[in-house]
Design a protein that fits this description.
heterodimer, A: Alpha-Beta Plaits, B: 13 helices, 2 strands, 67% helix, 2% strand
Chain lengths: 199, 351
């Protein structure tokens, strides 16, 4: 019974003289290898040249600051809830007087840790975040020698003021609109706040 | 006398240095060429185009830990790589690298020694080369090494025959001389021997691949079956010497092929070129151009060796023996018969 058309019937026919002396086949093979001398090479000379990432590449996270340099994260915990790998933990703190330039809202994350060994870089934290605070960037998480150094705290995650990280590739109008669709469950809290005018 | 010693010493040192340099850069070119044939770039980090790679490899070989197995025969174990590399270099003394140079009244040949039985000397020295492999493999006291060594020696015996007979045919064509420089000189102005000996050249080429233990005949060190073959137990610079000697062998046999079959330092319209440039016979510029021609041919042959390595898969052992005894030996005898007939009608043989 023939299942596909791809099967090849084994032929046991006698080899012709040309096949027996091998030389035509060898010359043919040599021509093939020689032609590869002039083929285009797919090599990317890594440290000097880097491969271009897709615009939606999901690498190391960043905790964004707003234009005044205040942290956007309000420690609402949405990301931690959304995280399928349970890689995110945080501790909330209350903003004191005189810290307005540091934290955007009254509540902020005192500690914020992502375990990079658990993280699967799915990007759900970014999707869940109502404050546009966490983003996945095109940076690669470095290799480390110890397991506990993979737990990244705020010192690594929060962007430095002198080294702002561009996330416009991921913060497109489509994304912003998507976050405002009321029917989506993760937007309900945000919508409630909007309706009450507490934003 | 003192002049003669100085001249020979200079030639010796230069040819020794060139052999070693070529062997070192063959390792680089092998990797580079392999990369290019496989759509890669090959070594590119050490220096421009990876040109310092042989230095890095040599340094690695020098500084690695040297292991001599307890159960080995220590004396023979150390002797083997030395023997192998010495025979490899000695085979290079015969090669006439260029037309003779005339300085003052004396004529200087660009050759260490013009042995009048050069072809026989060459066959003898290259077959001693297998002793290095054999002794090394046996002294390691390791079954893989021993198997590799046995394979190498069996292969050498099988292919030496066909090679020798194809060389007899060559000698008849070249006018009955056994001297390397005379064989090369006989092709001056005429046609290269390969025109009269196409079959002989193919047989010689295949045998040269087998003699130098190159792919597709590298059964002596075939890593899929025998770990490292005869050099399984070798490490550090002794291993380096083995690998080095193989590349020197390759260099020498490429030079021999270029000299025997492709005219060595002669090339088409050489004399027209020299007279157009207004050069006297024996000028050092002629020697230089001849050397360049010979060297280029040799390098092309080395590249062809590598090209073959990355094209043809390795033979199975019985296939190797079948090819040697059932195909190449009868073919070389046939070639000899044809040569005799052809040369009789050309008038080179008189009964």
């Amino acid at each position: 019974m023939q299942l596909t058309n791809r099967s090849i019937v084994v032929s046991n026919k006698e080899q012709s003289f040309a096949e027996k002396i091998y030389f035509p086949a060898i010359v043919k093979g040599m021509a093939i290898t020689f032609s590869h001398l002039f083929k285009k090479r797919p090599t990317i000379m890594y440290p000097e040249v880097k491969r271009e990432y897709a615009p939606v590449y999901r690498g190391q996270h960043v905790l964004k600051r707003d234009e005044n340099g205040a942290e956007r994260c309000t420690s609402c915990g949405m990301c931690a809830v959304a995280c399928p790998a349970e890689a995110i933990t945080m501790e909330s703190g209350e903003r004191k007087k005189g810290e307005e330039h540091l934290y955007r809202e009254e509540k902020y994350a005192k500690t914020y840790e992502i375990n990079m060994l658990r993280c699967i870089f799915c990007g759900l934290c970014e999707e869940a975040c109502p404050k546009e605070a966490i983003f996945l960037t095109d940076r690669i998480v470095d290799a480390e020698y110890e397991r506990d150094t993979f737990i990244y705290g705020k010192d690594i995650l929060v962007e430095k003021m002198d080294k702002r990280i561009d996330v416009t590739k991921r913060q497109t109008p489509e994304v912003l609109n998507f976050k405002k669709i009321p029917g989506l469950k993760h937007n309900e809290v945000y919508q409630d706040k909007l309706n009450k005018g507490k934003h | 006398m003192i002049e003669f010693i100085i001249y020979k010493s200079i030639i010796c040192v230069v040819i020794f240095a060139v052999s070693l340099g070529i062997a070192a850069y063959s390792t680089w070119w092998e990797r580079k060429f392999a990369g290019l044939l496989q759509d890669r770039w090959g070594p590119s980090r050490a220096g421009k185009w990876g040109l310092l790679q042989p230095l890095a490899d040599g340094g690695k070989m020098l500084f690695k830990e040297e292991i001599i197995p307890n159960v080995s025969n220590k004396f023979l174990f150390i002797l083997a790589p030395g023997l192998f590399i010495v025979t490899a270099i000695v085979a290079g003394v015969l090669i006439p690298w260029g037309p003779a140079m005339q300085i003052g009244d004396s004529v200087y040949a660009l050759q260490v020694s013009d042995v009048n039985v050069g072809v026989i000397f060459l066959l003898g020295v290259t077959s001693i080369g297998v002793y290095g492999i054999m002794i090394g493999g046996w002294a390691s006291n390791n079954k893989y090494s021993l198997l590799g060594a046995i394979r190498a020696s069996a292969q050498m015996i099988s292919y030496e025959l066909a090679m020798g007979i194809s060389l007899i045919a060559l000698i008849i064509t070249a006018g009955g001389t056994l001297s390397f420089s005379e064989i090369v000189a006989a092709q001056d102005g005429g046609v290269a021997n390969v025109v009269w000996q196409p079959l002989g050249f193919i047989i010689f080429f295949v045998c040269a691949l087998a003699e130098t233990n190159r792919a597709p005949f590298d059964l002596a060190e075939c890593e899929t079956e025998l770990v490292g073959g005869y050099h399984t137990e070798y490490s550090a610079f002794k291993l380096g010497l083995f690998l080095f000697a193989e590349y020197i062998n390759m260099f020498v046999s490429s030079a021999v092929m270029a000299g025997f079959y492709f005219g060595g330092y002669n090339f088409p319209f050489a004399h027209e070129l020299y007279s157009a440039m207004g050069l006297q016979e024996g000028s050092w510029i002629i020697s230089l151009i001849g050397f360049g021609a010979y060297f280029t041919k040799t390098l092309i042959f080395i590249s062809v060796f590598m090209w073959i390595r990355w094209t043809i898969p390795r033979f199975r052992y019985d296939q190797l023996m079948n090819l040697g005894w059932k195909a190449l030996l009868p073919l070389s005898l046939l070639n000899l018969a044809i040569t005799v007939v052809v040369e009789y009608f050309r008038g080179n043989i008189i009964f």
